[in-house]
Predict the structure.
Amino acid sequence: MIRVWQGDITTFDVCAVVNAANRSLLGGGGVDGAIHRAAGPGLLEECRKLGGCETGSAKITGGHDLKARHVIHAVGPVWHGGGQGEAALLASCYRTAMDLAEAAGCRSVAFPAISTGVYGYPSEAAAEVAVDTLSAWLEGREGWEVTLVAFDTRTAEILGKALER
Ligand code: ADP
């Protein structure tokens, strides 16, 4: 099951929250900064040991001071107009994050709108990639609760529309 929720992902009580990280995995602005602030310095300490992450992939850590047990740091693509494999890379982020959540024993995951902030991916197109990729991944699996978290009303509407298609 996929649902849309508007709010701050750092407050979510789920097994894993996904972070829209950058390749260094050493923190940044936007949702990344918010997650690191809420999780405390232990998260950065753990991230330092991971040696970064490729675009389109993800790595998992503990949740530290968050309610969530795990943080999955996914590195979305920077938008360059759509001709540089951005959609495939974004889809790969969502799939890899779900694979990691499943391996960690999770059944509830919350995602921010990866790549749609500083990385400039158009929100409508990103929402369709998120919904299509997650729906395909969830096919044949049961008992999952996947939340697409919108920080603002506009993103919530866009995600809702992508879900209703
Ligand atoms: P990226 O670099 O992947 O574009 P950003 O953090 O700049 O990542 O933005 C990704 C999305 O996360 C944007 O839609 C932004 O509004 C949203 N966002 C920022 N802070 C939070 C938060 N605390 N909870 C949920 N979403 C957030």
